[in-house]
What we know:
This protein is of the alpha/beta class. It has four helices and 39 strands.
Amino acid sequence: MATFAQLWLTALLEFKHRIIDPESVLASNWTISSSVCNWSGVSCGVIHERVVALNLPDMNLTAVIPPHLGNLSFLVSLDLSGNSFYGHMPRELGQLHRLRLMDLSFNGFNSEIPSSIGKCSSLLSLKLYYNELSGVMLGEIPEESGNLLCLETLFMQHTKGLTGRIPTSIFNISTLIVITYSNDSLSGNLPDDLCRHLPILRELYLYGNKLSGNIPSSINECYSLQLLELSANRFTGLIPKRIFNSTTLQAIHIFDNNLEGTIPPLTNAPMLWRLQLWGNKLSGNIPSSISNASMLEIFDVGDNFLSGLIPKTVGNLRHLEILQVANNHLTTKSATHEWSFRSSLVNCKNLNLHVNSNDLISTIPSTLWDLKDILELDFSSNYLNNSHTPDVGHFRSLLHLKLSRNLLTGDISSTFGGLQTLVTLDLSNNIFHGHIPGSLGGLISLEFLDLCNNNLSGVIPESLEKLSYLLYFNVSFNRLEGEIPTNGCFTSFSRKSFMENYALCGPPRLLVPPCKGSIHRNSNKTRLHALRYGLPTIGIVLFLIVLIVMYRRCQSRNTTRLVKDDLLSLEIRRRRISHAEFSQATGGFDESEMLGFRSFG
């Protein structure tokens, strides 16, 4: 009969022989010449030298796990995470009764979860997340998993193809501290008594499934619960009234569902720092009891049907960093249009304030610009106007300012140029007029600038060419004129940035007329080129002509001199003959001595 040592050796060697080990870690170390207790990733007990752990995480191994691993009966820890194991999880894993940790996450298993895992009765932590339970057989959670009565942490998130309902027996495991079934394809309802058997549950992650029905009313009976994540599901009905009556809850995420009704009062939530309810169908007012969550840092109720005023008590949340109430029907006071919450926000440091797409009808109070430590301010898509030019010079750390789609008028203040931390400036779709201030060239961190659909006139300041981080620029649908800057960031902007203006001009690629000044400059450049290269050519030609003329004149003078010399020689040779000599020579003029006598010619 084989001993335990022989069984362990056989199981591990069979495991080795099936593995593709590109880095040869096991090939060089797992040899029969040494004890298995000295093999990489293998640990043995101190006294009896039994194999108690097989931990080979992130070693780039590829294989189908052989059933022989089920013979490692004293195994306490099995960690094969971060490799490329695939195929079926062998049902023989259920023989590992002493196993406390099973981590097979980040692999490629593509079968159902074996029900035999429910026999691993000592299991404390089960991690099967990031696998590929897809293909012909889609994985379902076996009911036997509810037999893991010692289980403390259950991680099954991002397990592709994991379908069906969560077994109710899971919620009877009173030892559970963390339950994670996020980004799976689970459906069905949660049991209404979900928390009655989970006294020490701290974290419940069920994000991104197809769970429906009501949120269990017993949720407040998870007395140790710190994080509740039920977002991106199909829950309906009301938010349980007692959900905010918890001294332990730190984060509540139930956004992106179909919840209705009002936000329950926050009667006792001293530890709550994150509350996200956006993307539901909630109505009514934001409760003034929100201030009871004194540690709140993130409050997001956007994309609902909330109405009424933003409560002034919001300002008591001194740790508040994100106030997101966008896409609702919030208003100002009907008679005075007063912003009751504005003055209280001075207590909030590093605040990101999103009140866009509501029904705010009022003049922006000048005190809004005194919120020195605000990081982001979004009041776009409301009905706001201004009695004077916004003076934003007091902002010290502002990153994003969005005031688009309002009724703001007047000049754009030159104080905008002092916001050196500003990344986004959106003043589009208002009634601003006057010139674009050249001081905007001082926005050295700016990446997004939208001034379209206003009544701005004048030229586009050349100082904007210095905005080296500017990626988006739009001044279309204004009354701008003059030459479009062509250097710096402007080399990458298209015609869409400049459409429908009064008289902008520039390069042909922007589909605007060429600038007259540029035509004159081009003609001047042509003249300069003509002068630079034409004058020397003309000079050389003239020089050659002069040389030719002078040469011909010299030639003419020489010819004249020769003719004169010939004539002179003739003149010398010809002398005057007296009458007496002529008479004597002709014999007294005798006809017989005359030339041509008795002949012709």
